[in-house]
Design goal:
Elements: H1 2-7, H2 12-24, H3 28-35, H4 39-52, H5 58-77
Helix pairs in contact: 2-4, 3-4
Length: 79
C-alpha cells in the first residue's frame, strides 16, 4: 500500500479510505463512521484521489489499486 500511496502522493487518510473501500467494501457512510468524519469529507477525499490519478471513476481508482497489488504479489513471489 505504501508504494502505491507514495507513487500517487496519497495522504495517510486517503490511503486509509482506499483500504476500507477496496478491502472491506465499505460504503461512504461506513467509511465516515469508521474514520469519525462526515460523509462529505469522504467524498472530498475520493475526489482528491481520483484527481491525482486523473480519472472521474472510483472503479478506475480501485482497478489501478488492485492491479498494483497483483503486480507486487507476483513480483514478490518470483524473488
Amino acid at each position: 500500500m505504501q508504494l502505491f500511496s507514495d507513487a500517487y502522493h496519497f495522504t495517510q487518510r486517503e490511503s486509509e479510505i482506499l483500504i476500507l473501500i477496496a478491502a472491506y467494501g465499505y460504503s461512504n457512510r461506513e467509511v465516515a463512521e469508521q474514520c469519525l468524519i462526515s460523509e462529505k469529507t469522504v467524498k472530498n477525499h475520493l475526489a482528491n484521489m481520483m484527481k491525482k490519478i486523473d480519472t472521474r471513476s472510483i472503479r478506475k481508482l480501485l482497478s489501478l489499486f488492485i492491479n498494483h497489488v497483483i503486480a507486487h504479489t507476483k513480483e514478490n513471489r518470483s524473488t
